[in-house]
Each structure stands twice: as structure tokens, then as C-alpha cells.
Write a structure and sequence with these properties.
The chain is an alpha+beta fold and about 120 residues long. The protein folds into two domains: about 35 residues; about 70 residues, Copper binding periplasmic protein CusF (OB fold (Dihydrolipoamide Acetyltransferase, E2P), Beta Barrel). The longest helix has 22 residues. It is built from two helices and five strands, in the order ααβββββ.
């Protein structure tokens, strides 16, 4: 091999050797790393509340709730529509719940709700 080709091969080998540890530290392809909460499936911020009224016909729940962090809303009592209106029949006044609400074009709706575990 001539001297130029040998130098080129040595340089390429050195570059590859130096790049390997950096590639081993690159976690950007892992799920959730550097991703938005929605992309990582972490957008479901749950809020604690207590149901004060159930409207099974309208598919709505009135809930006295804590701060809703994902909506930047203070604690209060308000009416929420359910994305699945039939789920209203699964609840009664007094039920403690954990729920996720979203602002869908100015309408607040519950996309996820579960009865809270009793201590």
C-alpha cells in the first residue's frame, strides 16, 4: 500500500473508533427520550376529584376537583362532558375519582376516568 492510502485507512479507523463510544451514549432513539409528553404517552395528567352529580342522560359529571395542571385550572366544582357518555352510568355522587380532562375547542371533556382506590 502506498503511504497516502495507508494514512487514509488509519484515519478512517481512528474516526470509527472515536465515534463508537459516542454512539453508545446516544439514547435519542429510545422511546420517550426527548419526545413530547404526547409522543411518549405521558400526557395523561390525572386529577383527583369527587363526583357531586351524575347526568346519565347527558353523559356529564359534576366534579369537585383539585387543580387541573394540564389545563392550568384552579380547584373548583364544574360540569364535564364525557368522551364516552355511556360511562356516566358507572358513577354516583360521592365517588372519589382520578380523571384526565382536555380542552376540545372550548369544551372541557373527560377522556379518562377511574374510581380512586380507597385507602
Amino acid at each position: 500500500m502506498n503511504h497516502t492510502l495507508l494514512s487514509l485507512v488509519a484515519t478512517l479507523g481512528l474516526c470509527a473508533a472515536l465515534a463508537a463510544p459516542a454512539a453508545a451514549q446516544d439514547h435519542s432513539s429510545h422511546a420517550g427520550h426527548g419526545a413530547t409528553p404526547a409522543a411518549a404517552g405521558q400526557d395523561t395528567v390525572l386529577t383527583a376529584g369527587e363526583i357531586t352529580r351524575v347526568d346519565t342522560r347527558g353523559g356529564k359529571l359534576t366534579i369537585r376537583h383539585e387543580d387541573i395542571r394540564n389545563l392550568d385550572m384552579p380547584a373548583m366544582t364544574m360540569v364535564f362532558a364525557l368522551k364516552n357518555p355511556g360511562a356516566a352510568a358507572d358513577f354516583k355522587a360521592g365517588d372519589k375519582v382520578l380523571f384526565h380532562a382536555e380542552d376540545d375547542g372550548g369544551t372541557l371533556s373527560i377522556t379518562h376516568i377511574n374510581k380512586a382506590a380507597h385507602p
